[in-house]
Amino acid sequence: MEEVIEKLDAELIYTQGFLKSVQGKLANERFVNNAPEAVITSERKKEADALAKINTLKESIAGLR
Known about the structure:
Shape: elongated
CATH architecture: Orthogonal Bundle
Largest sheet: none
């Protein structure tokens, strides 16, 4: 059981880092102003997916503890 929790924790840390990266891009005015709308939409979807995954991982970890 502890092994599963460790894997979920590692995935959570990775996903949080990924989210921070995506949010950094979206916070960059230059990127937002110069990127095509399709790229911005894609980055916003990545952000939403990462947030959902983080919530799911946190719930899974809490349920196992």
